[in-house]
Design goal:
Length: 309
C-alpha cells in the first residue's frame, strides 16, 4: 500500500469523525433554537438541518461548473437524492427499527417533493438548464420554504429558551459537517483514482455518497436520539434543496451540460425512488423491513452504475 493511499484512508477516518461529531452538535443546537422560536421538529428538519447538510452538494456543484465540468452537477444532485432516500432512510429505519412520523408529510410536503422531481426531469430533458428554468427552480424553492415556515409548534411541546452556547454549537457543528464532508470527498476521490474507478460515474456514486454523508450522520444521530421528525424531514428537505437550489444556483456560474446517461437512467431512477418514498410514507411510518428494501435498492443502484455484477 502506497503512502498516498494510506494518507487517503487516514483522511477518510478523520473526516468521518468530524461529520459524526459535528452532526451531533448541529442536531441538538438546531432543535433547541428552532423550538425556542416556535418551530416544530419536522420543520427544523426540512429547513435548518436539511439545508445545512446540503451545503456540500452546493459547494461541489459550483466548483464543478467553475472548473468546466458542469456535467458532474447533475450526477451530484441526482445521485445525492437517490442516496438520501435509499441509503439514509434505509439506515435510519434499520437503526431506529420503526420511523413513526410526528408530522403529516403526505398533506403538502410529499407532493412538493414529487413535484420537484417531475420539474427537474422536464427542466433537464433538453440537455441544458436555461436562465428561465433556473429562476423557475428557485420559485419552487420559495414556495416550499413559504409552506414549511408557516408551520406552528404543537401546543403540547415545551419551548425552551436558547442560549449563546446553542448558536456557537450550531456554527461549530455546521463547520465540522461542512469540512468533514469536503475532506471525505477528497479522500474518496483520491482512493477512486488510486483504484482506477471510472471518473464518469464518480459524481453520481462516490461524490454523491460523500456529499450525502452529512445527511447520513445527522439523520442516524436524530434517529438514535428518538427524533424521527428531524431524520425524515432532513431527507425530504435536502432533496428539495438539491433539486431546486443546487441545480439553479450552479447554473448561474456557467453553462450547464446534462450527460445523456442522466436522462436515460439516473433521473428516471431518482423519480422512481421518490415515488417509493411517497408510497411507504402513506401509513405514517417506515418499518425496518422497508428500510432493508431501500438498502437493497441502493446496492442495485451501485451495481447498475459500475457494473460490478
Amino acid at each position: 500500500m502506497s503512502l498516498d493511499v494510506l494518507y487517503s484512508f487516514l483522511l477518510l477516518a478523520g473526516s468521518l469523525f468530524m461529520l459524526v461529531k459535528g452532526s451531533d452538535w448541529f442536531v441538538d443546537s438546531a432543535e433547541r433554537i428552532g423550538l425556542s422560536l416556535g418551530v416544530s421538529p419536522f420543520i427544523i428538519g426540512v429547513t435548518i438541518v436539511a439545508f445545512g447538510t446540503s451545503l456540500p452538494e452546493l459547494a461541489s456543484s459550483v466548483a464543478a461548473v467553475l472548473e468546466g465540468e458542469s456535467e458532474l452537477v447533475t450526477g451530484v444532485v441526482v445521485g445525492s437524492n437517490i442516496t438520501n432516500i435509499l441509503l439514509v432512510l434505509g439506515l435510519v429505519a434499520t437503526v431506529g427499527r420503526v420511523i413513526k412520523m410526528d408530522y403529516d408529510i403526505m398533506d403538502i410536503d410529499m407532493p412538493l417533493l414529487v413535484g420537484s422531481a417531475i420539474l427537474l426531469w422536464f427542466v433537464v430533458s433538453d440537455g441544458e438548464v436555461s436562465v428561465f428554468e433556473a429562476i423557475l427552480l428557485l420559485v419552487g424553492l420559495a414556495i416550499f420554504l413559504f409552506n414549511s415556515l408557516g408551520g406552528n409548534i404543537p401546543s403540547d411541546i415545551e419551548r425552551p429558551k436558547s442560549k449563546w452556547r446553542d448558536y456557537l454549537l450550531l456554527l461549530l457543528g455546521g463547520v465540522f459537517v461542512k469540512f468533514g464532508a469536503d475532506f471525505t470527498v477528497d479522500a474518496i476521490d483520491n482512493l477512486s483514482e488510486a483504484f482506477q474507478l471510472n471518473s464518469a460515474l464518480l459524481a453520481q456514486t462516490i461524490v454523491a455518497l460523500g456529499t450525502s454523508l452529512p445527511e447520513v450522520a445527522v439523520s442516524i444521530t436524530a434517529a438514535r436520539k428518538g427524533k424521527p421528525g428531524i431524520a425524515v424531514g432532513n431527507v425530504l428537505g435536502s432533496n428539495i434543496f438539491n433539486t431546486y437550489a443546487v441545480m439553479a444556483i450552479a447554473s448561474f456560474f456557467g453553462e450547464m451540460v446534462i450527460p445523456e446517461g442522466a436522462l436515460t437512467f439516473t433521473i428516471p431512477f431518482m423519480f422512481a425512488c421518490t415515488l417509493m418514498f411517497a408510497l411507504i410514507s402513506i401509513g405514517g411510518r417506515i418499518t425496518k423491513w422497508e428500510g432493508y428494501m431501500l438498502l437493497v435498492m441502493y446496492l442495485f443502484f451501485f451495481n447498475e452504475s459500475f457494473g460490478f455484477i
